[in-house]
Amino acid sequence: MTQPTHNTREHLRIALELARAGLPVLPLRRGKVPFGNCRACARNACGGRPNMKNAGPCLCPDVCHAWAAATTDPDVINSPAWVRAWHRAVGIGYHPGGAGLTVVDLDSPAAVAWARQSLPGTRTVATTRGEHWIYQGAIRSVNGVRPGVDIKSTMAYARWRGHGVGALTALPDAVRALVVKPSTVRRPSVVAVAALAGGGECRHRTPAYLERGIAMAEERITETRSAVHATVYRTFLAVLSVHGRCGCLTDAHTARLFTAAQARGESARHCADAWANARTALGM
User: Fold this and answer.
1) Backbone angles phi, psi at 61, to 5 degrees
2) Is the alpha carbon torsion for 80, 51, 139, 251 positive or negative?
3) Rounded distance between C-alpha atoms, residue 244 and residue 114, angstroms
4) Model-level pTM greater than 0.70?
5) I need a surface site. Which of 49, 84, 153, 241 has the fewest CB within 10 A?
6) Among 246, 251, 259, CA closest to 209
């Protein structure tokens, strides 16, 4: 077994400290992104069950399923597979939504200035390009809600950069409003999308129809050999065009699509951006 280095021991120490405080953690590799799925979990073959709180998505001992791998279980964090990952890690990630938190990621001085004028104060953590403002309360994650501002909460991860300063305050309506699509958005008059499984009205009275659509989307992403970014976006667009307006899509379905995309090398941020862009294109 690989002998732990100083960085490995430090990562483990901090990860265990955060886990004891109820913050689900995961190792981040070069590029500050989660580790890719192992062979057994590729193409969601394990039937992964992404969990919104603090348990890993399946019984796989490896660090799989991106944000859904985040855990507070010290036995998992200290397991041989995870220790090997910590040895290669460049940082520690955490799942804010799993701890009931929302991170407003301010990625530029202009974004920080906007937050100071527009949002109530809360715990603030300095980053390389701006600040993380952390609030008590979880919402869905959306990137690019305004220039230089991403919302990271459920089904997302943030990089741990220290405890920061200030006391946590409740998630304000001003932040909640950032992830709500304004009703004034003009829908495109025509959206040409090739549906994955038929078209027309939602036929989800038979659960197999939705399952087939998600499975076909996973397969389309997994089998692409080029233009991965474009394929992921087009697939998300197709899924949303068929299933996006009926309320049948769940966080688990979205997680399956994100997992398939990340197995092809997409980052969690790219997945979230593609999903948000697809929703915008459809006027959702």
Assistant:
1) -80, -10
2) positive
3) 32
4) no
5) 49
6) 246
How many C-beta neighbours within 10 Å does residue 273 have?
A: 19
Structure token pair of residue 25: 């953690």
Length in residues, the chain: 284
Q: How far is CA 274 from CA 47, 174, 192, 230, 231, in A?
A: 23, 24, 17, 9, 10
**Smallest Cα–Cα separation from 67: which of 2, 5, 153?**
153
pLDDT of residue 185: 37
Where b means 16+ CB within 10 Å and e means fewer, 18-53 reads bbeeebbbbbbbeeebbbbbbeebbbbebebebbbe
- Residue 186's pLDDT is 40
Residue 42's nearest CA partner among 22, 62, 23, 25 is: 62
Question: How distant, in Å, are the alpha carbons of 210, 240, 242 from that of 193?
Answer: 17, 10, 9
Select from 14, 38, 134 the least CA-distant residue to 86: 14
Q: Using 50, 70 and 90 to split pLDDT, how confident is the model at 277?
A: confident
User: Tell me: the pLDDT tens digits for 30-52?
Assistant: 888 888 888 888 766 776 644 43
